[in-house]
Amino acid sequence: MPRHLNKRNVKFHIVSEALKTLYRQKLLPLEKYYGFSDFHSSSLEDADFDNKPMILVVGQCSTGKTTSIRYLLEQEYPGSRIGPEPTTDSFTAIMHGEIEGIIHGNTLTVDSNKPFRKLSPFGTTFLNRFQCVHLPNRVLESISIIDTPGILSVAKRKISRGYDFPAVIRWFAEHVDRIILLCDAHKLEISDEFSHTIMALRGNEDKLRVVLNKADMVDSQELMRVYGALMWSLGKVFCTPEVLRVYIGSFWSSPMRMTDNWKLFEQEEQDLFAGIQNLPRNSALRKLNDLVKRAQLVRAHAYIISSLKEDMPLVFCREKKKRDLIYDLPIIYSRIQQRYQISPGDFPDCAKMQEQLMSHDFKFKGLKPKLLAGLDELLNTDIAKLMPLLRQEEDQADKLLVQGGPFLGSHSGPFTEGNPFNHYGSNGESDHVSDEEWVVSKDKPKYDEIFYNLSPHEGKLSGIKVKGWMMSTRPPSSVLGRIWKLADVDHDGMLDDEEFALAGHLIEVKLEGFGLPHELPAQLVPPSKRQRKNSGTEKRDND
């Protein structure tokens, strides 16, 4: 494995540090020299390389964006609102913090530890609609989430936001690791703003995941029609020959209204969440890909600007020549591609470039071979030297998987199949709780009736018998797997009457929208299990 990646013999230990140094030494000088940020995205900062993976959640009004984030975190974040009308009117970065708090947009743009300093050009109106929420949540220890305002429908398209919404979406799309585009089974129309937003995502299709949410609200026949209509509508906007992958499900804690396709919904959720769980592991690779993509765009931009400089007269007829060059930009693109053997895919959108050039003074700089040679070295040599480091990081990345929330569960019990969660034991705090303090006691008679109707054997129900009843309550299997793990206090693979009542209580709690505990609290431990758990704790302490 190479130990050195540049002429200064700097030894890199992690890929992000290597990318940061290569960017500052070989790419940033070229961006500044040719005014790259005047036409494309602003220059990168250290926070862009050091930040955790980010997920951008986008969708029309009332498609379940904030509800899906709550489902992912298993708790609400400060300032979140959920309702049938458009309730999220701000961009909200949800990040980990030991103390809950909100930081407003104007403050975020001067914080060098956050990757949002380059958002200030979007103006005060946008910054007044941007905030960062800190939340002590285990999921957020590995990733950050960006909640967005609902995309306006056709009826509300004339309402002005006061800032360039698609441009803001484009900025976030370039800086995040995953984009989740939520669609509603009952809202398949593509409004003007929705179309412009999707176009703002172009160039980042590898990060995009389309989700058809609230799919349990239609039956199987209607779902097939909705799915086909959505694919047809998206195909017209994306204009790509590839068929988009659309994940189908209902990402909330409420019971499924129609259970015809529950197995499909479970599998789709597992696929979607598996990709999210692996984001920290793939973060270095994503940053590497984004830097290569950026370097290729910078190279094409440099040749475009230098070519315009070469064809521009020094004094006379500059305005006429400027108009001619802008009109002939497609020909200039083709000439550069043939002369320097650059792929057409590396070039910026021609129409957009023509529009930007109209307002430019055309005081460009000519070709500088030394800077371009450094860029070629980055693309052809330095990136290849990073690959061994990248593989080394991937080999050690198992510990980087997202944990907590729906990514925390059990590997045992009747809901094992497809369960993506790790096993966590109980906390052993129950020895100080009296029998009278069991919070499930008031509901136990109700669950005792169900328990004995299921015909227990020697006072216990097997996992097979319990599974049928638990499935009838309609939470996702991933949730039921966690409830089984918590309720099976003695870990014998069966439930007695107290454990069964505990499972029923946890299901009710989850259906009411509350998060499940990662470990069973003391007041939930069944009275008959407390002495046993206490003895087990004392034994571990004596050992």
UniProtKB/TrEMBL annotation:
Query: What topology does the record note for this protein and the membrane?
Result: Peripheral membrane protein
Quote the PROSITE patterns the UniProt record gives. Answer: EF_HAND_1, EF_HAND_2, EH, G_DYNAMIN_2
The cross-references to CDD domains, in alphabetical order and at most eight, read: EH (cd00052), EHD (cd09913)
Q: Where is this region: Disordered?
A: 520-543
* Protein localization: Cell membrane; Endosome membrane
Q: Where is the EF-hand domain?
A: 475-510
- Residues of the Dynamin-type G domain: 49-280
Keywords on this record?
Answer: ATP-binding, Calcium, Cell membrane, Endosome, GTP-binding, Membrane, Metal-binding, Nucleotide-binding, Phosphoprotein
Against Gene3D superfamilies, the record matches this protein to:
1.10.268.20, EF-hand, P-loop containing nucleotide triphosphate hydrolases
Q: Which InterPro entries match?
A: DUF5600, Dynamin_N, EF-hand-dom_pair, EF_Hand_1_Ca_BS, EF_hand_dom, EH_dom, EHD_N, G_DYNAMIN_dom
Q: Name one GO molecular function term.
A: ATP binding
**Can you name a GO cellular component term?**
plasma membrane
Q: Which GO terms describe its biological process?
A: endocytosis; endosomal transport
Predominant location: membrane
Domain called EH: residue spans: 443-531
* Superkingdom of origin organism: Eukaryota
Q: Does the keyword Nucleotide-binding apply?
A: yes
Matching entries from PANTHER family are given as:
EH DOMAIN, EH DOMAIN-CONTAINING PROTEIN 2
Designated name of the protein: EH domain-containing protein 2-like
The taxonomy runs: Eukaryota, Metazoa, Chordata, Craniata, Vertebrata
